[in-house]
Amino acid sequence: MKLVLKALYLPLNPGIGSCALGCTSECTVAKKSSFQPPTGATCPLFLHQAQTYDKIFNDNADIIFNTSPTGGGKSLAAYIGGLIKEKYRIVGLYPTIELIKDQERQLRKRCQEFESARTKRIDSIYGLELALRGEPGDRGRKFDQILRSLKRNYFIITNQDIFHLVLHLRYYNPSTALDKLPIALATYPDLFVIDEFPIFGEHQETAIINSLLFIRESRQKSRPMRVLFTSATPKPSFIEQLTAAGFKVDKVFGEDESEYREGSNKIIAQKIELEFISIDDGSLSWLLRQIETIKDDLKDPKSLGVGLIILNSVALSRQVFVRLKTLLKGEIEVREISGQVDEEEREKTRKLLESKAFDKPVLLVATSAVDVGVDYAINLLIFETSDSATFIQRLGRLGRHEGFTSHKAYILVPSWMRWIWSELNKLEPGKEFDRNEFKTEIVERIFSAKSEFKEYRSYWGNLQAQGMLRALSGDNIYDKSERYAQSLRTENIRNTIAETWRIICKNDFDKKIKRWFCLDQEVRNELLRFRGGSDLQVAVWEIRDDKSCFYIYDLLRLIPYVEIEVIDRKQFIQELAKVNRNEIEFNDEYIQLYIKVVNILDKRRDISLHCDYNSEDLTECTLAVINNFSIVEHPQSRQLNTKLITKSLLTFIVRIRQNKDSHWNEVTNKLRLPATFGIYRLKDNDGEHYACAFNQDALLLEALKRQLNRCKNSKPYIIY
């Protein structure tokens, strides 16, 4: 199915006399910076950027959504106030480390362009960076480092995970009040910027609502909270939740145009030819069959072509990179960008593309490290689908730069996603769409989740809130007097947050107050995490082009793509030291195994699990903590299972037929789960087969289970 997307233009700010920044005689932005208007215009800003500034400083909205198109300058819209005003503090939240680093680079560049911002201090905070600060033996060092950064810096770039951990009181200093750091985070910044939040799910939406409630109730009335969400694809259901929680919400739309008008608009995306591809035997197989097509698409008459392949799995991206690098050697420069590639190599790739210092076409193989926000000049894009938000983000990488004759996109859609193909096949081949029409009629209608998993929110949402309130009350403080003092100090905030959740949950909130203590500890832990966790993390050592690389990955997502050797921690740390990496990056407390990658497989290996239980001892269609798992159909099963069999995992299982793909057909298709969802095939001692999921994926299946035929009459995990 081939379609065409028209070029995209955004209107410029009208400027002097009609400016949302209040400019009457001269342009404030042009006066204070080297950022100058295009030909025929009086202001260098897009209209949506000026409108965002106006909403932040002159409106009474608590929360603003900037939904302008990808590539339209939402980042500048977010930071323009901090660049113009001298004493203005902003905390920006970004979903990937790559994007945090990219935003810091852009912000430092902007600060140099704006005279008033040149001396402003900027800090980036993420897990590894934070772990390396301070003395390792100091229990409160992370607490102290974050607090110091909040006090000293005007711009802090971090991720949603650390934001969540701080406001859910997961960092502490034994000598300081438990709520000191969350209160500081809630009150020091003037603006919170939350970027690309739609890529997260209902669990994260509920967590962010809890955090925003804490911020609102912690701030003085004279300094009301201001939060800016920057995304082209906000979920209507999330905005409804925020409104129900009593937040004043406003939007800046960034309306686009399809024709050029000198001095009135500016192009932000070129015309794109796109094609939807049905994938039957995996993305790698299709890519290998299309080698000649890829070569042709990268032969651009104007410039050496640059292509980008974005895949859902880090392990698959590695497999694709190895195969394509071998097949295209000498003709195309193939490079990898993913969580497995160290910072030095990613920086080399970035500089190579920025300087255009290559003498042949370039093909990048990447994961979400680049699909959210990072900007490369490309003329070819190939990507796997996930959901509507990810679709928009990945497609938004293409067409942002001039200098190419054409821009082509191939969207890889698994053939088993029949609900998508049934709609795509109704489209008129070759039809030309403007961007708004394409977004609403195709992306949001066809690629959105069946019901946005609203069941998760109603099932688990207020239990997540209960966990936050228990932490605020000092429930985990051992000393009685300290616990009582903490409870008194946060009583008003807790009562107000609880009252808000009573409104959201239609008075169902109080029924769940005591149920928090009925949950298994594993369930409570999962509810208090932001992205969810893996209890099967492995530390991986891999040699690439005679260079050692080290990373952490989920065992079950890694082993289908590689041959491995199990090693001990001592050998791993010795190799780590040879490349001057710090062992603090690989905390033994959270790592189950240490692995050396011996070889990348040519074809994905199917794996399945076994549990040492009889059918009568397993309860399907509910959450359970299960152990005695083992991996089957893998050459290193014996080595891997020495650790796996001892692990107790939060699990949801449902019985399925014995044919190979029944866990996909009976569960994934029925619930329309995204391609990234972690679902596995499990067999018990009696030969019965199950579809199973772990941790946060298990929580989601528990909330959706009534849609499965086997679970229609099952009881809920928590009975009220």
UniProtKB/TrEMBL annotation:
<dbReference type="Pfam" id="PF22590">
    <property type="entry name" value="Cas3-like_C_2"/>
</dbReference>
<dbReference type="InterPro" id="IPR027417">
    <property type="entry name" value="P-loop_NTPase"/>
</dbReference>
<dbReference type="Pfam" id="PF00270">
    <property type="entry name" value="DEAD"/>
</dbReference>
<dbReference type="InterPro" id="IPR050079">
    <property type="entry name" value="DEAD_box_RNA_helicase"/>
</dbReference>
<keyword id="KW-0547">Nucleotide-binding</keyword>
<dbReference type="InterPro" id="IPR017575">
    <property type="entry name" value="CRISPR-assoc_helicase_Cas3"/>
</dbReference>
<comment type="similarity">
    <text>Belongs to the DEAD box helicase family.</text>
</comment>
<dbReference type="InterPro" id="IPR001650">
    <property type="entry name" value="Helicase_C-like"/>
</dbReference>
<keyword id="KW-0347">Helicase</keyword>
<keyword id="KW-0067">ATP-binding</keyword>
<keyword id="KW-0378">Hydrolase</keyword>
<protein>
    <submittedName>
        <fullName>Type I-D CRISPR-associated helicase Cas3</fullName>
    </submittedName>
</protein>
<dbReference type="InterPro" id="IPR054712">
    <property type="entry name" value="Cas3-like_dom"/>
</dbReference>
<feature type="domain" description="Helicase ATP-binding">
    <location>
        <begin position="55"/>
        <end position="252"/>
    </location>
</feature>
<keyword id="KW-0051">Antiviral defense</keyword>
<dbReference type="InterPro" id="IPR014001">
    <property type="entry name" value="Helicase_ATP-bd"/>
</dbReference>
<dbReference type="InterPro" id="IPR011545">
    <property type="entry name" value="DEAD/DEAH_box_helicase_dom"/>
</dbReference>
